[in-house]
Design goal:
Number of domains of chain B: 3
CATH topology of chain A: ABC transporter involved in vitamin B12 uptake, BtuC
Shape of chain A: globular
Strand content of chain A: under 5%
CATH class of chain A: Mainly Alpha
Number of strands of chain B: 22
CATH superfamily of the largest domain in chain B: P-loop containing nucleotide triphosphate hydrolases
Strand order of the largest sheet of chain B: 6-9-10-3-11-12
Number of strands of chain A: 4
Shape of chain B: globular
Largest sheet of chain B: 6 strands, mixed
Number of helices of chain A: 14
CATH architecture of the largest domain in chain B: 3-Layer(aba) Sandwich
Oligomer: heterodimer
CATH topology of the largest domain in chain B: Rossmann fold
Structural class of chain A: mainly alpha
CATH class of the largest domain in chain B: Alpha Beta
Structural class of chain B: alpha/beta
Order of helices and strands of chain A: HHHHEEHHHEEHHHHHHH
Number of helices of chain B: 20
Strand content of chain B: 25-35%
Distance between the termini of chain A: 8 Å
Radius of gyration of chain A: 21 Å
Number of domains of chain A: 1
């Protein structure tokens, strides 16, 4: 629905006529927040230990991972694209970090092995994520490949590359060594500042920055413009191809960051890490009110969406819901969110 | 004429009227479709031709009046219903599926069934027979997407004929065709006439109508003003009928003395992928404070020329903006140099449906609002409010949803977006399309004000009245070429209409004419 005018990108308002309908429309518009309260309240009452500090901290980390992926994904979806490769990029990024810490970089002709310091390792992994995003963006813009296909291909390529790095085995015990000067990798996932896990602080900072960029910079506006009407954006002087490439780069960097956080948290890198993460990220974005057609959605919405997905997952685990039922319930919630999205259109009188 | 003695009228409209809201599109029109003849329908945009045609073909039902098919009153339920009774229509926009074969397209929606499946053999044979009847060398198994536009048009006609149409309505069938494709189409039409098919032919191209028409009906403002055999009509007479009393036409006095050249276009040529020139060696100069109208028919290459100038379409030739060569620059770079386009199709090319009025207005101006990276809300709101006031856009504030505005106000928003950039030249493609008369007057008043402030304005129109009243200078295009370029106050209407039909008009001849 490219011509959806039901809600403004940045600050939509529904002009419903009658009070009851207005309230319902408001609830639907704030559906992600409502869902979060419902899910949270449900588990707070029914799941043992749900409100304990320990489980809250674990849940916060899970939410952080979905949220970081979701932030990048929000930009991509706002332009009308999709990025299926984020889970694989996360996996690859962790594997690259693991390989650099354990095996170092071999400079082939001289036979030297260099062990980069941890900050450099992080930088290399993030740059790699950005590069893969760049490849996605170039495929989409210069070669006209549909985003779904380009990033689906990259999903396989990046996952395969991660497996190749270790021949399919895990890089264990990524603590580094004082001899090589590459200690400290686990700090990224394990550090706490005033009792708050570092990944949570990272996601808060990232979300604030991303929300500011989306709402208040020319680039952010251009992202909404490309998703709303790419042709009009082009004729208005928006460099559409550059904007599209940029959002895939951002998404790739976010994915790489997630890979690093996960590997650091576990102090090991597993090649299958991050599988199906892309689906959680897309679910968070959609729950947060974004339209897959592009042009509509907010970073704030995505963060709430990530909270819903994360809370739902951990809450069900704590309640001992079987893994199979968990999948059924998650799927239902996602579809229900999209159905509500369509209903919202009707309540505010969307014209097509 | 023998034609007149043996006249047969299988389809007749009597007193047909139709309104859309407050707009009266048709005011009681009588129209006869003569069998074995080309019945031409002509009139300016908005004269009611399309509405009449849509009623004849069953797309719409009249509010008043009736249709007589072979003398009996009929009411068509749908296009399919009309088609079953032998009335076929080919719309101006091709409605084919490029991914299907010619045969599949011809039988789309009315497959010949064989039990549960489709009788492909019979469909193929019937498609081949229809194409043969049209004298077209088109393979029924070819993919429509692989055919040239002219051939696709023939497939459309074949589709209309596959149900044994006795009446065939063609809406501006030649607007997208090359000369040789037009020649083929005319052979097809001659063939159909011999078979006794009554053809309703809508076109703006006068010379073309004179060539193939048998009867000509002129419409103006929803009413029929004249209906005569073509032999009794002439081009000047038709133009006079189309435009009506034009004595009181408010021709713009050359109030502004044009300034220095702002936009200089030399030898601009834009080609279709198959090599056909859409814009063919066009040169023109636009001066500061000058309004130039590009008048022409659909398919004359006007939109392509404007898209080429603004950077949205690649072509040959040079373009100078204030002396600087810009033909290799991107759209964004040309906008930075303050040359902007208001596209023809607001919904598809102009508006961001997901943004508010303010967001739509500011889109080309964002870098100026964000000197330190962040858009200043204060400057943005101020700039948006100023533009809303300046153009009289009827929106409560910049936060109003763009979809809540009327067509005319939406058009002003797109124009406002260009003005935000403080342009030196703007290009407007059919600025009056899809807006009501009042809004049109406002848009044109705005254009005049802006030109008085020194802005150079180039706009396209298919309305001669618009061209003559708003512009300082009228450039006429036909088949991609400039066929006339003269001041509006010396332009004569018949000459311009002829020029739009491809008959070049030389300024000296016109000057002499004006002096008479």
């Amino acid at each position: 629905m490219a011509t959806n005018i039901s809600s403004a990108a940045v600050d939509g308002r529904a002009d419903a006529k009658d009070g009851g309908v207005a309230l319902l429309a408001l609830l639907i518009r704030l559906r992600a927040l409502v869902a979060l309260f419902v899910v949270f309240g449900f588990f707070a009452v029914l799941a043992p230990n749900f409100l304990s500090l320990g489980s809250m901290l674990i849940m916060a980390k899970h939410i952080a991972i979905i949220a970081v992926l979701g932030i990048g994904m929000t930009y991509v979806i706002l332009t009308g694209g999709i990025d299926l490769s984020v889970g694989s990029i996360a996996g690859l990024s962790g594997m690259v970090a693991g390989a650099l810490i354990l095996n170092g970089l071999t400079v082939a002709p001289l036979g030297w092995v260099i062990y980069p310091s941890v900050p450099l390792v992080l930088l290399i992994a993030l740059a790699l994520g950005g590069l893969i995003g760049l490849a996605n963006g170039v495929l989409v813009t210069r070669f006209g490949v549909a985003p779904f296909i380009a990033t689906l291909g990259m999903l396989y390529v990046a996952r395969g590359a991660g497996l190749l790095l270790s021949n399919g085995t895990t890089f264990p015990n990524l603590v580094g060594s004082a001899d090589y000067g590459n200690q400290g990798f686990p700090l990224l996932g394990a550090s706490r500042v005033l009792g708050v896990p570092l990944p949570v602080l990272i996601v808060v900072a990232l979300a604030l920055a991303a929300a500011l960029v989306a709402a208040r910079t020319p680039f952010g506006r251009h992202v909404y413009a490309v998703g709303g009407n790419a042709r009009a954006a082009l004729l208005s002087g928006v460099r559409v191809a550059r904007v599209k490439i940029a959002v895939y780069v951002i998404s790739g960097i976010c994915a790489a960051l997630v890979g690093l956080i996960v590997a650091s948290d576990l102090v090991s890198a597993h090649p299958a890490s991050g599988e199906t993460f892309e689906l959680s990220a897309i679910a968070a974005v959609v729950l947060g009110g974004a339209s897959l057609a592009g042009g509509r959605g907010t970073i704030g919405g995505t963060i709430i969406g990530a909270c819903v997905i994360g809370t739902l997952g951990d809450g069900m685990v704590m309640m001992g819901v079987s893994e199979f039922w968990q999948m059924v319930i998650k799927g239902t919630v996602i579809v229900a969110a999209v159905v509500l999205d369509q209903l919202q259109g009707r309540f505010v009188g969307t014209k097509d | 004429m023998s034609l007149l003695s043996s006249i047969k009228v299988p389809l007749r409209a009597e007193g047909v009227a139709k309104s859309y809201g407050a707009t009266r599109a048709l005011r009681g029109v009588d129209f006869d479709v003569v069998a074995g003849a080309v019945n031409v329908l002509i009139g300016e945009n908005g004269a009611g031709k399309s509405t009449l045609m849509r009623i004849l073909a069953g797309v719409e039902r009249p509010d008043e009046g009736r249709l007589l098919l072979d003398g009996e009153a009929v009411s068509f339920l749908s296009v399919r219903d009309a088609a079953r009774r032998g009335i076929g229509i080919v719309f101006q926009e091709l409605n084919l599926c490029p991914n299907l074969s010619v045969t599949e397209n011809i039988f789309l929606g009315r497959s010949v069934s064989a039990g549960l499946g489709i009788d492909k053999k019979r469909e193929h044979d019937r498609a081949a027979a229809v194409l043969a009847r049209l004298g077209a060398a088109i393979d029924p198994d070819a993919l429509v997407g692989d055919l040239r536009i002219g051939q696709q048009q023939i497939v459309e006609i074949a589709r209309a004929l596959a149900e044994d149409a006795r009446i065939l309505i063609l809406d501006e069938p030649t607007s997208a065709l090359s000369d040789s494709e037009v020649a083929t189409l005319f052979e097809v039409i001659a063939e159909l006439k011999r078979d006794g098919v009554g053809i309703v032919y809508i076109s703006h191209r006068l010379e073309e109508l004179m060539r193939i028409g048998d009867f000509i009906t002129v419409m103006r403002d929803g009413a029929l003003v004249a209906s005569v055999p073509v032999a009794e009509a002439s081009v000047p007479w038709i133009v006079e009928q189309m435009l009506g009393e034009t004595g009181g036409l408010d021709v713009r006095s050359a109030a502004n003395t044009p300034g220095a050249p702002v936009l200089e276009i030399e030898h601009a040529t834009v080609r279709r992928p198959d090599g056909m020139a859409l814009v063919d060696d066009v040169s023109l100069t636009l001066r500061a404070g000058e309004i130039v109208a590009i008048y022409g028919l659909l398919g004359a290459g006007r939109t392509e020329l404007l898209e080429h100038i603004c950077g949205a379409r690649r072509g040959e030739g040079t373009i100078r903006l204030n002396g600087e060569r810009i033909e290799r620059l991107s759209i964004a770079a040309r906008i930075e140099r303050r040359l902007l386009l208001v596209p023809e199709d607001r919904q598809r090319e102009g508006l961001f449906p997901n943004l508010q009025v303010g967001g739509n207005l500011a889109m080309s101006f964002l870098d100026q609002l964000a000197p330190r990276g962040l858009i200043s809300r204060l400057s943005e709101n101020r700039a948006v409010a100023a533009m809303i006031g300046r153009l009289g856009i009827k929106a409560r504030s910049g936060a109003t949803l763009i979809g809540a505005l009327s067509g005319g106000n939406q058009q002003k928003v797109v124009i406002g977006r260009c003005l935000m950039r403080d342009p030196v030249a703007i290009l407007l493609d059919e600025p009056s399309r899809g807006i009501d008369v009042g809004a049109r007057a406002e848009v044109f008043a705005t254009m005049r004000t802006l030109s008085a402030e020194g802005l150079a304005i180039l706009f396209t129109t298919s309305d001669l009245f618009e061209a003559l009243t708003i512009a300082d200078r009228v450039v006429v295009m036909a088949a991609g070429r400039v066929t006339a370029d003269l001041p509006a106050d010396v332009a004569d209407q018949t000459g311009l209409v002829r020029a739009a039909n491809g008959i070049p008009l030389r300024p000296p001849a016109i000057a002499a004419h004006g002096a008479i």
